[in-house]
Hints:
The chain is 26% helix and 17% strand. The termini are far apart. It is globular. The mean pLDDT is 91. The strands form three sheets. It has an eight-stranded parallel β-sheet with strand order 5-4-3-2-1-8-11-12, sandwiched between helices. The protein has a two-stranded parallel ribbon with strand order 6-7. The protein is α/β, with parallel strands linked by helices. It has one domain (23-247): Alpha-Beta Complex (sialyltransferase cstii, chain A). The longest helix is centred in the last third of the chain and has 17 residues, at 202-218. The protein has helices spanning 14-25, 68-71, 83-94, 141-151, 202-218, 240-243, 247-251, and strands spanning 35-39, 58-61, 77-80, 100-103, 116-119, 121-122, 135-136, 156-160, 175-177, 196-198, 222-225, 236-237.
Amino acid sequence: MMKDLWDLRGYPLEETLTRHEERVARFRDIHAGERCVIIGNGPSLLRTDLTRLKNVPTFGLNKIFLHVDAMGFAPTYHVTVNPYVMAQDRDGIMSLPGPKFFSHAGIPLMPENDEVVFVRDIVRREFSPDLRRGWLLLHTVTFCAMQVACWMGFSEVVLVGVDHSYNAPCDPNRLVTAETEDPNHFHPNYFGPGTRWQLPDLEGSEEVYRMAREFFEANGRRIVDATVGGRLQVFEKADFHALFPEPDAVAS
């Protein structure tokens, strides 16, 4: 039987997590009042001109390193929480420049350097505004990125590539091994043949997205969804091209 990478019983986590609380603290409100973009991994990225985000603070998730060449830039920050993604794509993730935020499930898997930040996973089911205490890791990495963005002080978060639509069996969170090319992400080898991945939980994702929306709105901030053709209905919709016009359009 293969090891359950979520099972960390007996593994010494506390020393690393205590040390990383200081790293987490350095990011508090460093982008106060700014706008950022969380880049999801849906197929709609192939219909989104991400080159317009080159000078915008961005969060990349999981295997976004597969799209960096097409984007023309690397995300400002990176977030990965699933240990199966970390175990299978450690080198690609670590090739990204800049700060990388990992679930504490990654402590046994990921190298520790100055750009790595391990965040404690908490169990209380609420949006966490204090990343030193930890984040609520539930259903989707995008939700964790929202908690990081809040901690950094961003007043507006824009979602792109969060398609919220999967061609996959309806068995949320089950660990499976892919047998074909991946139709659910921007790259056919994202979860390609032989890759182990956990099936999505769309209802659970909506639950935590509502937590994020309510927290942001209660604190005078907002999250908007500029995903091209996205099916998520939790956040106010926005037009990507209007938010991020081409440079020539801005100049004129």
